[in-house]
TrEMBL record:
Residues of the Aldehyde dehydrogenase domain: 20-481
Keyword annotations: NAD, Oxidoreductase
Enzyme Commission number(s): 1.2.1.27
Cross-referenced InterPro entries: Ald_DH/histidinol_DH, Ald_DH_C, Ald_DH_N, Aldehyde_DH_dom, MeMal-semiAld_DH
Family the entry assigns: Belongs to the aldehyde dehydrogenase family.
Gene Ontology process terms (BP): L-valine catabolic process; thymine catabolic process
Designated name of the protein: methylmalonate-semialdehyde dehydrogenase (CoA acylating)
Domain of life: Bacteria
Amino acid sequence: MTVSSVPNIKLLIDGKLVESRTTQWRDVVNPATQEVLARVPFATAEEMNAAVASAKQAFKTWRKTPIGARARIFLKYQQLIRENIKDLAAILTAEQGKTLPDAEGDVFRGLEVVEHAASIGNLQLGELANNVAGGVDTFTLLQPLGVCAGITPFNFPAMIPLWMFPMAIATGNTFVLKPSEQDPMVTMRLAELALQAGVPAGVLNVIHGGVEAVNLICDHPDIKAVSFVGSTAVGTHVYNRATQNGKRAQCMMGAKNHAIVLPDANKQQTINSLLGAAFGAAGQRCMALPVVVLVGEAQSWVPELIEKSRSLSINAGVEAGTDVGPVVSRAALDRISGYIASGIEQGATLELDGRNPEVPGYPQGNFIGPTIFSGVTTDMSIYREEIFGPVLCVITADTFAEAIALINANPNGNGTALFTRSGAAARHFQEEIDIGQVGINVPIPVPVPLFSFSGSRASKLGDLGPYGKQVVQFYTQTKTVTERWFDEDEVVGSVNTTITLK
């Protein structure tokens, strides 16, 4: 494909797909082949302001749209996503690199949130206290905030946008979405399907860009709340800048998730779970398991971890049977390779080196295979920093208590897992571990949308998580109404200058 024939990604403003007038563009590149799939614009300030203005205008009517009418749009939307899930996965794999089955999983986990959005009215109910004083009732209303915005990362370009705008819109807000500039194509297709489902003009807008777009979202006075998923550095910037401007903000950020393996765990099931969580999506998940802590006799499992990892297939995501696809970019590949080199330099033992694999038919792909280090200590860069690649660090502990203490000492708190057959050990673990999301024989404990994503500590800024019950509180303002009605012939005897209601 020649550059001149590469399509331009559009902006979505006021219900229309708009060609940007920017002079700044970025290529969307297939990470398995380096083919340029499209060009994404870095929207101008005028275009971004127009998107916000459209959302602000649409809010005037959308906020008064009946709950049932909003729900029916999302019932239609989930149907359209189901009907198009294969095509959505194909787009996602082409621009992001993950395998087709994993791409379908990406879309499906977002679809679950859309399904929940269709019934979110049940969670937007207020409370009533009758006769709190003489003839006085008090009740609460959960009302939408106005224009909300979302900033999403490259690693889940379908799921995470679907975490955000359906919940915001279903609760009566309007939305401005800024997807990752690295892989915006599937996000735009999801936006088109939302319009097809009946989302009115201006209720959902999509802009593209980099730092300028992020800062405009944080600064714009008409945006009332910002949701972010991405790196710790950017998330901290977004949270600080948005909240200083009086906005609500929720930022899901970096992680260094651990799994503890006790000797009584089912060996084969545990090894399969560990490797799937460590190397799935080429390790590009904030809920991946890049660290395993082997306790006691489980330390002897390392050779089997290595041998099983060798059997995983490294190939383009479109190829059948692929276990590990390419990472998203050349820059990511170089960063991960640099971490591997630092691990060797700092004294870890490189048990399995995934660098420079041969992938027939894809010589230009951003491939790196499963990589395993043993002898890792907590002062090494490969332990302290988020690699975001298919690199597994093996740490050993003599006791269960030592393993728990090691995890609790890590500043991050996104997710953790324990593998065991002991109910007593599991109960002790879930009580003592200071991590927001806990799996017991579940390697990636991301909750279904009936609950909320609950990462903690350095992995999260803001009190309320995305989707589920918590996000209804995030996207609504509680208004308390206290009222008294008098009978037509009732006369108040005297002026009441006290603070109490009688």
